[in-house]
Amino acid sequence: MKDFSGKVAVITGAGNGFGVEFAKECALREMKVVIADINKEDLKRTENLISDMGAEVISIPTDVSLYEEVENLASKSIERFGSVDLLFNNAGVVVPGPIWELPVNDWDWIMGVNVNGIAYGLKAFIPIMLKQDTPCHIVNTASVAGLLTTPSMAAYHTSKHATVALSESVNYGMQAMNAKVKMSVFCPGFVQTNLHECDRQRPDRFKMDPDEPYYQSKTYQDGLARAHHVINTGIPIDSIGQSVFTAIEEERFYILTHPKYNPLIGKRVKDMLEGVIPSVKTFG
What we know:
Blueprint: E1 8-11, H1 17-28, E2 32-37, H2 40-52, E3 57-61, H3 67-81, E4 86-89, H4 104-132, E5 136-141, H5 154-176, E6 181-187, H6 218-232, H7 240-249, E7 254-256, H8 262-274
Parallel strand pairs: 1-2, 1-4, 2-3, 4-5, 5-6, 6-7
Helix pairs in contact: 1-2, 1-7, 3-4, 4-5
């Protein structure tokens, strides 16, 4: 996909972080834009931002962990613009902690957004794109955490590995059909977003229980401190939109942001093939 002017983009998780950068880049390329987020105030801020840039935009509050809301997003997008050419399955959340301490509610929230949200987006929008039979592209936001594993982030790693696997499998399907739908999986390292503040995006059914001991634990507090540090010392976010769009133009499937992780990714694959037991010493 190389011609963006006048085409229609749909972006989930558009209230913050990567979603805002994707929306800005869409506006710069004179696309029509549908933005979705669970937080109405954040969504309105993005809407105002890209509207001021001259974009034709609609905002649709959406909880991607509920299929009926993603289905509504697809329906409203077609109702307004008549087509969907570019889909960013971008919404994501994180809660730190080992699986034996992490509350089940947090596991369900992470899987609901990071895995089901991607799957629901694919289920709702791919039939639209196939019916159009025009050049389209889908970008699923994963993470380098979908290509590597580290201690104390089991739920997040699981969700992001699932996103990579889901993206690969669906891409095979598109190839086998000779579909005009191309795909990418975006696997960034640490970038200056506000992902570590995602708790404020929780829907009521996943609300934190104030009586849950885990949220007062040292494990949880240390996890929050680590997340705050690595995100705030990550690379600036302002180059992300352009680099992702360049990857779309070049029809690259894997979109990575941090070459320094490539040796670790290669070592992980090599260790698998050689039967080497994963070692925590890899991370110092």
